Amino acid sequence: MTEILQQIINGIAIGGVYVLIALGLTIVFGILGIAHFAHGSVSMFGGYLTFFLVAQQGYPLILAILVALVVGMVLGVLIELLAYRPVRNANHINAFIVALGLTMMVEGINLQFFGAEQVVIPTDAGRVFSIGGVTLPELRLYVILAAAALILAMTIFVEKTKTGQAIRAVAENRDAAILMGINVQMIPLIVFAISTALGVAAGVMVGSLFAIAPGVGEGLVVKGFAVLILGGLGSIPGAVVGGIVLGVTEALAAGFISSAYKDVIAFVVMIAVLLLRPQGLMGRA
Amino acid sequence: MPRKQIFLLIALAAFIALPQLISVKYYLHLSILALIWVIMAQGQNLIQGYTGYVSIVQAGFMGIGAYSTALMGSHFGLPVTLTIILAPLVTAVFALATGYPSLRVKGHCFAIVTLAFNMVIFIVLLNFTALTNGEAGITGIPKPGYGRGAWIDFHDRQVYYYFVLIVAVAMTALAALIVRSRIGQILLAIRQNEDLVASVGVASWKYKLFAFVVSAMFAGLAGALYAHYQSFINPEIFSVAQSLDAILAVIIGGSGTLTGPVIGAFIVVFLPEYLRFADSFRLILYGLILVLATIFMPRGIVGLARDIASRLGAR
């Protein structure tokens, strides 16, 4: 029983990372209809940058994360302006191909600047809490809390602020949003900045919990999309539920069945949900 | 004779003459790989170019074809020619099982679900070591034919080139037949407006599944030809990255055309070789070319050539 609880807690930490990735993907998808496949690699760029600043330049962790967030936001805005905007009115396949090209470019940039070695962001959160036989490393606790805070902030931003309302309006009906005087040229830039910031946060979490290496970003973005499909496209609660379901499934599968096949089991769950509920767990029919 | 047929004959003659014109053995090797990729790209084009569904599992199916031909040969002692024919059928069974759930979603979601399937296939190839020998892969896969020194010796690269050329031409012809048939017309209609197709009482899911399975069979066949050519396979070459190459071949060449995938296949095989000078910048450059090509040449090389031709013709 404690073993199950232990794996569930591990799963929630991983699930939190997935939720952040999925939220970044879902707002981009909602506004621009783009499957922003390069998101994982951009997130890893943020993780690498944080590692570089902490381990090689001696920045304090918080400062390094802040710098990485800002750089990531600029990168996200540039990606929208230079790569996605020119294909906005073309066939949606084209945007996807651009996303694939961007993935290669960002992976290449990561490789060029940070090398092929696997890196772990050093943190001094080394304590381990123990509650009734279930252990909770300090770092995992911080990751869960930070993810929860970011999810909450994002929800409040989208639901309550004027900009958030404008974003939802563009997602719902672009033409009507233009008529209402919303600056539709500006909205995608804001969306990409937010999306990339969430991604960088997830990248830092992956980098400190596990490790960053070439290819990790692509795996992560696929998990992010799996969360979207699992939870229902365009739904923030769906992304949260989907992410935690995926993370916990994976942790349980790794703990009780086979760690080599944990991804396979996670995808099987996604496909099973697709067969039974094509609109996702929280999606509207 | 109409211009189209003249063009076709010239292209065919060029492919037949190619091995005689190439002096560097390595280029002949790349040409064989490119012809195998023509089969991959024609399959990808059926689902991506004509039906409008971007599938990202083609390399996984290539892997299933490659492993099934190798394993059927070594476990059941079947002749190579037979296993090459059976490999696409085995692939078709897997494609049916994956296509049915994948095709329940559309657009980007479909792409992602198929990508997940590619990852599943890759992970299984890597970890099911009892069958696949894991990362080390399978070595010593025999060539077709009657061994070294026979009157047709498939160890000779030129012979294998012509063997693959015949198959690639046949598969391109098959793709042409499918595209021009009633089924092909329905696939095109699905790409343009799936709801309309359904509204006139056509069960579009059957046609989509057909396109998906046939495209997988193309990939399975390509995988089998690859396995017997290289005599060695491991999971690495059947990963998502190679599925992306299949998509690129179709897009860069010209999606929804029959010539496009042929041009695209040669580009995805040869371009990375020519970019070797860029060394570690290669991946960045390759991605940049892809982004620029999609922005400025969205209908591929064939589309660009057609635009130029029609402009010249109008003068």
TrEMBL record, chain A:
Q: Which organism is it from?
A: Paracoccus maritimus
List where in the cell it is found: Cell membrane
Family designation: Belongs to the binding-protein-dependent transport system permease family. LivHM subfamily.
Which membrane topology term applies here? Answer: Multi-pass membrane protein
Highest taxon above the source species: Bacteria
**Name of this chain's protein:** Branched-chain amino acid ABC transporter permease
Locate the transmembrane regions by residue number.
12-38, 58-83, 95-114, 139-158, 189-213, 225-248, 260-277
For this UniProt record, give its keywords in alphabetical order, as a comma-separated list: Amino-acid transport, Cell membrane, Membrane, Transmembrane, Transmembrane helix, Transport
Keyword Membrane annotated: yes
UniProtKB/TrEMBL annotation, chain B:
Query: Which superkingdom is the protein from?
Result: Bacteria
Ranges in a coiled coil: none
Compartments where found = Cell membrane
Q: Name one Pfam family in it.
A: BPD_transp_2
**Where would you find the membrane-spanning parts of this chain?**
50-70, 76-97, 109-130, 159-179, 209-227, 247-271, 283-305
Q: What is the membrane topology here? A: Multi-pass membrane protein
Q: Does the keyword Cell membrane apply?
A: yes
State the UniProt keywords alphabetically: Cell membrane, Membrane, Transmembrane, Transmembrane helix
Tell me, in one coarse class, where this protein mainly resides. Answer: membrane
Q: What is the protein named?
A: Branched-chain amino acid ABC transporter permease
Annotated source species: Paracoccus maritimus
